[in-house]
Design brief:
CATH topology of the largest domain: Alpha-Beta Plaits
Bound molecules: zinc ion
Structural class: alpha+beta
Distance between the termini: 55 Å
Radius of gyration: 24 Å
Helix content: 10-25%
Shape: globular
Strand content: 25-35%
Number of strands: 23
Number of helices: 10
CATH architecture of the largest domain: 2-Layer Sandwich
């Protein structure tokens, strides 16, 4: 049987873009800075339907009599492809910063040109493992604490809260500014054989005022003036990066996907006014290290996070048995249990062993949906992109058994509405260990 396979696409804007599901009810319209999976799916589906030789069957394509020759049928027959979210970037697959990302209050993020830190951009840091270690040793009620630090039991550690402050400030030379949350996007690139984090510059936007048309009378009307913010990524080094996963990619399905994806498309709102022209191309995947390597590096970073505490209090072990891993959402995820939206995924739904322990979640929810291609759509609560779940696999779970399960999760995603790009997830994304606050030399000095 064919295995699920991921294909990567780059969407290069040729005109300003108006993205998102907003309707024209308000007289101020903003654009999202990403392309939802449903938008990409719609563009590809429309192109393939236009290539169907029996177009009279378009409203009910299941009865297309030309299935053997129909590219639409070839793509959608073997299960819905999963069209991922496209996020802005420069040259490769991009990710929203996790909710645990921090940056200098005065000189945040990275230089927009190079994507690297410099004197006026003090780079991004990740607080995930620093918070985890600090909270676990300082809070006797921290979940599963006794399983990880049996000698500490339910006692307070000798840790002083003063130490936390050293995590909470910028460590760029000469700067002691406090840290703040960081939003936006980053990407990975290989530099001299090592994976490295690069910041993605914000996409420019511009504001235009349009005169609305009174649809009943078919004339322009001053009272219908509306203001629109559009994304101006055309002619810049920005493009948008997404992934499409085919559940069982055969040659026909792959060819149909390529036919539907590659070339000129129009996406988003305002197409009749010249917005939304894009070129979509096929690109090579992002340079993420193999999962086994990421889990190894993550384990080293966990040990680094506990090391200073272990130095201070002999009851604390820096190196713990078992394995830790993080699940970081690249796109929003929809978890539903008994009809109710959930903030945490269910291990059975993830097809992961139930002995796994959730140590900590950084997850926020907000409504998604509302409108989809002009039609009202059920609104649900989704967990935000960038949310992070930290799990512990006790030594009874073998890494050999866990690895393939996590690889599948990374390929096929989590939660509901994955065909619209919801629930894209990365296991032990390098940002967490490369940028960990606990790796600061200054801290150990
Ligand atoms: Zn057809
Ligand atoms: Zn700073």
């Amino acid at each position: 049987m064919n295995q699920p396979r991921a294909f990567h696409v780059r969407i290069s804007p040729q005109s300003p873009l108006l993205l998102g599901n907003q309707t024209s009810i308000s007289n101020f319209q903003e654009s999202e800075d990403y392309i939802p999976g449903s938008t990409l799916a719609g563009a590809v589906g429309a192109r393939l339907l236009a290539g169907c030789t029996a177009p009279e069957h378009q409203p009910d394509h299941a009865s297309c009599p030309e299935r053997h020759a129909c590219p639409f049928w070839h793509l959608f027959d073997l299960g819905q492809p999963q069209f991922g979210f496209a996020y802005p970037g420069a040259s490769s697959y991009t990710f929203p910063y996790p909710l645990t990302a921090r940056s200098c209050k005065r000189h945040p993020a990275y230089d927009p040109q190079s994507g690297l830190p410099d004197q006026r951009h003090h780079g991004a840091r990740d607080s995930l493992l620093a918070s985890f270690a600090y909270e676990l040793v300082s809070d006797p009620a921290f979940p599963h604490r006794a399983a990880l630090q049996p000698d500490l039991g339910a006692d307070w550690s000798l840790w002083s809260s003063q130490w936390w402050q050293s995590f909470d400030q910028c460590h760029a030379p000469g700067c002691q500014e406090s840290l703040d949350k960081l939003t936006g996007y980053y990407q990975y690139a290989i530099d001299q054989g090592n994976v490295q984090v690069f910041g993605v510059a914000e996409v420019d936007s511009s504001r235009a005022t349009h005169v609305g048309i009174n649809r009943a009378r078919g004339v322009a009307e001053e009272s219908l003036l509306f203001t629109q913010d559009s994304l101006d990524a055309q002619g810049s080094h920005h493009s948008f990066h997404a992934r499409v996963v085919l559940a069982a990619a055969g040659a026909d399905q792959e060819a149909a996907l390529r036919q539907g994806v590659v070339g000129a498309h129009q996406i988003g709102r305002g197409r009749s006014r010249g917005y939304g022209d894009v070129e979509i191309g096929w690109v090579s995947p992002s340079p993420l290290p193999p999962l086994s390597r990421r889990i190894e590096r993550f384990a080293e970073a966990v040990a680094d996070a506990f090391y200073p505490y272990a130095q201070e209090d002999k009851r604390i072990q820096a190196s713990m048995p078992g394995h830790f891993f993080s699940l970081t959402l690249r796109s929003p995820a929809i978890f539903v249990q008994d009809g109710q939206p959930q903030r945490l995924p269910d291990l059975r739904d993830l097809q992961l062993p139930e002995e796994l322990l959730l140590m900590r979640a950084w997850a926020r929810m907000q409504p998604v949906g509302g409108w989809d291609q002009g039609l009202p759509r059920r609104t649900s609560l989704a967990v935000n992109a960038g949310s992070v779940y930290l799990y512990y696999a006790p030594p009874t779970i073998s890494l050999d058994a866990l690895l393939p399960q996590l690889e599948t999760l990374e390929l096929t995603g989590v939660g509901a509405e994955r065909e619209q790009g919801y629930g894209e997830v990365t296991v032990c994304t390098p940002f967490h260990y490369l940028s960990s606050l606990t790796r600061l030399q200054a801290f150990f000095a």
